[in-house]
Amino acid sequence: MNFPKSLTSEGNLMVFNTMGQQLYKQTISKGTQQLPIDLSHLPAGQYIVKVRTESEVWSQSVVVMR
Questions:
Q1: pTM strictly above 0.70
Q2: Which of 60, 55, 52 is nearest to 25 (CA)?
């Protein structure tokens, strides 16, 4: 996952299904701009990846295809 810019503070990366259920959470460090995410455990479908820090919230839709 590539972020639009380096994170200005530590935060969390979360993955949600279309029903709003959180399926994955990972702490990410200040300064991170790119982070590999293993979604191989998820079934095919659409998901929302959200990054939340003290001062920023960023989200992106992703599709897992099999």
A1: yes
A2: 52
**C-alpha–C-alpha distance, residues 61 and 47, integer Å:** 6
What's the per-residue H, E or C state across 20-66? CCEEEEEEECCCCCECCCCCCCCCCEEEEEEEEECCCEEEEEEEECC
- The terminus-to-terminus CA distance of the chain in angstroms comes to 19
Nearest one of 9, 2, 6, 1 to 52, comparing CA atoms: 9
Whether 12 and 35 have beta carbons less than 8 Å apart is answered as no
What distance lies between CA 60 and its chain's CA centroid? 8
Ordered per-residue pLDDT tens for the chain, 66 residues: 888 788 889 999 999 999 999 999 999 999 998 989 999 999 999 999 999 999 889 899 999 998
